[in-house]
From TrEMBL:
Top-level taxon in the UniProt lineage: Archaea
Entries under PROSITE patterns matching the protein: DNA_PHOTOLYASES_1_1, DNA_PHOTOLYASES_1_2, PHR_CRY_ALPHA_BETA
Chain positions of site Electron transfer via tryptophanyl radical: W298, W351, W374
UniProt keyword annotations, A-Z: Chromophore, FAD, Flavoprotein, Lyase
Domain Photolyase/cryptochrome alpha/beta positions: 1-126
Ranges where the record places region Disordered: 211-230, 426-446
Name this protein carries in UniProt: Deoxyribodipyrimidine photolyase
Family: Belongs to the DNA photolyase family.
SUPFAM superfamilies: Cryptochrome/photolyase FAD-binding domain, Cryptochrome/photolyase, N-terminal domain
Binding site for FAD: 213, 225-229, 264, 267-274, 364-366
Cofactor note: Binds 1 FAD per subunit.
UniProt keyword annotation of ATP-binding present: no
Amino acid sequence: MRIHWHRRDLRTADNRALAAAAGDGPVLPVFVFDPDVLQYASPPRVAFLLAALDSLQESYRERGSDLYTAEGDPAEVLPGIADEHGVDELFWNHDYTGLSQERDERVRAALDDAGIAHEAFHDALHHEPGTITTNDGDPYSVFSYFGDKWLDREKAEPYPDPDGNALADIDRESLPTIHELGFDEPSANIPDASTEAARDRLDTFCDDGITEYDEGREYPADEGTSRLSQDRNYGTIGVREVTERVDEAREAADEDERDGIDAYRRELAFGEFFAHVLFYNPELVVENYKSYENPIDWRDDDGELRAWKEGTTGYPIVDAGMRQLREEAYMHNRVRMIVASFLTKDLMLDWREGYTHFRERLVDHDTANDNGNWQWAASTGTDAQPYFRVFNPMTQGEKYDPDADYIKTYVPELDDADPETIHSWNELDDEERESAAPDYPAPICEHGERREEAIAMFERARGEG
Ligand SMILES: Cc1cc2nc3c(=O)[nH]c(=O)nc-3n(C[C@H](O)[C@H](O)[C@H](O)COP(=O)(O)OP(=O)(O)OC[C@H]3O[C@@H](n4cnc5c(N)ncnc54)[C@H](O)[C@@H]3O)c2cc1C
């Protein structure tokens, strides 16, 4: 008997380690609720995890098997399950964060002690760390070169979904509830979590959206993106299956439409780039990638941090984004960039405050992508936004949400205001604001002044101030 240990691969289809284990089954599928991982979790992600596990369990049950779940340190729990079921080999797919790598090291040692064989597979990325490097063999710190190589490489086909004959004949009880795991129900609406739901999202996007992705992805009021990030992060769908479907759409598209599809493929590469960066630099979870001569003198301002979190800064696009995050545990990418720039450059608050808030709120939080993007916005990351390039939240709002549809969806206080008023909110006097939208706050800071101060803050860090 073999165990397949599910972690961030909550599916049976296109699952490399599971397919390998099933090649010489029977396979006992296992998931372990690990307190070390759960301490960094949050209600939206635990809710999504439990729903995805429920669907995974159901798909095993339909094949006459079940999902074996346990709670505790995997290094202790897994050898026990293996012993109980006469398992001689354990399979899993790699995870690339520092925390996972340390845990896997301990699990390997425990299995070695117990005389149980084990094998780990690269599954979550098309191209694992170490396979896309500079000509000298070093990891890339600039995305564009990495992206070109990533796009040129051949991609593997999806792995087969095991049938019931390859699975252990077991019968288990139901999953724990979110409260039993120590979390409250999320206040945000969470997307459906299953391989079917992920496939539906992928189909919808490939049938309608992907060919205009290069433009459409920038406008938060439009449904121009795939909404697959939580599925990629929890593995409810495999990367090869996504690429196969995207390639089909590309085959059917004409020359112009392929630009949109290629832009999407490049974003997939971007996600893998950040996974490589974190793999080689696990300390980035808490430390800057880019070193400055002096420490960056981030401000400390609880009131402004609270206004940012609550979406009451008086900058409409920022507030809309922060409220979308609260209501949906999600935020559009363009708006994530705007709110991250606002926190780090207008409010001059440490990117770690923003990263932690996103980690607690996003259903699609992924250490590598969250951290890589926050450090990009804060001018501390790989290939980061130069410190002197500061997004203007008003012109960003006007350009990417010209009719203020996105803003009005999340900021009802501005419902009766026209787009021009909304996009010049920072230039109005108190009386004009009072008459246009009496319940919406005045800006908490002046963008032009803060931009100068932020540049000066970075120049001091560079030893130039
Ligand atoms: C400050 C900030 C924090 C972010 N935190 C996360 C996070 O925790 N988890 C996460 O998955 N993404 C994060 N992103 C990246 C991006 O915003 C989301 O992946 C995207 O909005 C998810 O929606 P989607 O699946 O519809 O995206 P789509 O536009 O359909 O993108 C498809 C896929 O491409 C990848 N991708 C897209 N944009 C980016 C990007 N900017 N960087 C890296 N990969 C990208 C993702 O894997 C995504 O699922 C963050 C971006 C910023 C600016």
